Batch of 3 targets.
Target 1
Amino acid sequence: MLVSVLLVVALVLRYDNLEQLDARMQKAQDRRESIDRNNRFSGTLANDLARLDVYRARIDAALVEPQNKASNLAYFYELGSQCKMAVRRVEQKAAPPPQGDPKKIKPEFTYFEPIVFDIGVDGSFADIMRFLGRMDKDRFLVRVDKLSIKRGDVLAGRMESADIVLTALCALPAKDK
C-alpha cells in the first residue's frame, strides 16, 4: 500500500515535470526547423544580394541630382528636340513636404526625396505622346502629376501645346552622424 501511494505521488510530481519537458522539447524542435530552413536558403543569399546590388545601382542611376539643375533642364530640352517638339519652358522646383501622419507616408518619400518639373511644350499630339513615352522609359524615375493639352489652330499653323507637371525622385541628402 505504501508503495502504491509513493508511486502515485511520484507520478503526480513527475507529470508536472513531463509537461515542462514536453514544452521544452517542442521549442527545441521549432528552433531546429528554423535553423534547417535558414541553412537551406542561405546558399542563395550571396546571389540574392548580388541581384539587389544590381537593382540598387539601376535605381541610383535613375535618380535626379537636384544640384545639377542645368543638366536636368538640358535633358528635357534635348528630349523635346529628339521628339521634334518645341520646349517652351522647364522649371525645377522642390516638392512640397508630404502631409499627414508620418507612419502613412508613401515609402518612396522615406528613402527618396521628390522633385517637381514644370514643363511646357508645343508639338503635334503624336509628338507630345512620344515625348511622354520616351520620358517614361528613359533616364529618370518620373510620375506625371498633371497633363494639360490644348488644341492648336491647324489653319493658323499652330500646334497643340501641353503643360506637364512631373515628380521625379532624388536621393535624400546624407545625414551627418
Note: The CA atoms of residues 16 and 22 lie 10 Å apart.
Target 2
Amino acid sequence: MKKIVVLAVVALFTLTGLSFADSKVKGAVINKSNVKNAANIAIGKDNTANMGSVKIKDSNVKGAVINKSNVKNAANIAIGKGNTANMGSVNVEGSKVKGAVINKSNVKNAANIAIGKGNTANMGSVNIKDSNVKGAVINKSNVKNAANIAIGKGNTANMGSVNVEGSKVKGAVINKSNVKNAANIAIGKDNTANMGSVNIQDSKVKGAVINKSNVKNAANIAIGKGNTANMGSVNIQDSQVKGAVINKSNVKNAANIAIGKDNTANMGSVDVQ
C-alpha cells in the first residue's frame, strides 16, 4: 500500500490525468489539466483512456478531491472490450473521502467515444461507486460542440452528469451543467445515455440532491434494447435520500430519444423509484 502525506497534489497533465490506487492521502487531491489538439486512444481489451481526469480507487483520502479540466479540440477513444474513456471527469471507486468532491470541466469541440462491449464513456462528469463520501459532491461542467458516444453492449455514456452508485454520501449532491450543441449517444443493448443529469442508484444520501442543468441545441439518444436516455433530469433508484430533491433544468431546441425495446427517455424530469 502506498502512503502519501501531502498538503496538495497538483497535476498539470496533458492526457493521463491523476490516478491513485490502494493509497492513503492526507490533503487535497487537485488536478488542473489543459488538453488541446490531442488524441488519447486505447485499443484492445480492458482498456482505459483518461484525458484531464482524476481517478481514485480503493483509497482513503482526507481532504477535497478537485478536478479542473479544460479540453478543447480533442478525442478520447477506447475500442474493444471492457473499455473506459474518461474526459474531464472525476472517478471515485471503493474509496473513502472526507472532503468535497468537486469537478469543474470545460469541454469544447471534443469527442469521447467507447466502442465494443462493457464500455463507459465519461465527459465532464462525476462518478462515485461503492464509496463513502463525507462532503458535498459538486459537478460544474460546460460542454459545447461535443460528442459523447458509447456503441455496443452494456455501454454507458455520461455527459455533464453526476452518477452515484452503491455509495454513502453525507452532504449535498449538486449538478450544474451547461450543454450546448452536443450529442450524447448510446447504441446497442442495455445502454444508458446521460446528459446534464443526476443519477443515484443503490445509495444513501444525507443532504439535498440538486440538479441545475441548461441544455440547448442538443441530442440525447439511446437506440437498441433496454436503453435509458436522460437529459437534464434527476433519477433516484433503490436509494435513501434525507434532504430535498430539487430539479431546475432548462431544455431548449433539444431532442431526447430512446428507440427500440424496453427503453426509457427522461427530459427535465425527476424520477424516483
Note: The radius of gyration is 17 Å.
Target 3
Amino acid sequence: MAVFFFLLLTVIRVEATPINPDIRKVLARPDYQANQFAPARAGWDGPEMSTSRPVNLTLEQVGPAATARELHAALFAAFVPDYRVVALIVLIILFFRRVSLSRSPQPARTNKPTIIPRPAAEPAQSSLSEPPRAA
C-alpha cells in the first residue's frame, strides 16, 4: 500500500499558486518584535536574575584560567632575577677589575708617535758569487 501511495505521489503533477506580493503592503507591515517577558521572582527578598555563576573547583584548578595563571607565574619567576645572584655577579666583576688593575698598572698614554730605528743596511750579495751562509 505504501509503495502504491509513493508511486501515486511521483506521477501526479503538482502545481503551486503563484504569489504576487504587493511591495506597499509588505513595507507597511510593522516589523516583527519578540515579546519581552518580565523575569520570574526567584525569591521573596532576592534578586530576580542571578548575577553570580556556580563555582566548579575542579575546573578552577585545571581549567584554562588556572593554566594562564600558572604560565604567568612561571614567566615572572624566570624573568625576575634573584637579587643575591645579581649582587654576586656585580661583586665578581668589581673584584676582577681591582685584581687586573693592581697587577699591571697601565703607563700614561701620550699622543706622541713612537719612533722605531731602522736596521743597518747589509751590502747586497750576488747569488752567483758566493754560496749562501749557514745560520
Note: The two ends are 127 Å apart (CA to CA).
